Amino acid sequence: xxxxxxxxxxxxxxxxxxxxxxxxxxxxxxxxxxxxxxxxxxxxxxxxxxxxxxxxxxxxxxxxxxxxxxxxxxxxxxxxxxxxxxxxxxxxxxxxxxxxxxxxxxxxxxxxxxxxxxxxxxxxxxxxxxxxxxxxx
Length: 137
What we know:
This protein is an alpha+beta fold.
């Protein structure tokens, strides 16, 4: 065995649990890729957050980690002469993204439109390395 005292079995079980979670959430690598796009001048992130307004969302950057949190609470009551009804709904959204080294954290912009949150992370200009030829001896 490569791992002492059953650690290998625990790792296999954890892998199975993670795979099952992704299957249950219908997440595939192509779905995850669709949320992130890299361009020369910026990174673009896209998240569906239906039912959330900009007041319900909080986006922070701390030590190279972008965190998106959203919380929505709604309560409605009504009634007539001899009846009373109450409805409540609650939703919570939380995700984190490790920003690349060339991200300009101070210039990140976010836009929310029709339940789609789009985040633009500008990139710093990297100096282009000069191509050098190596002599063969």
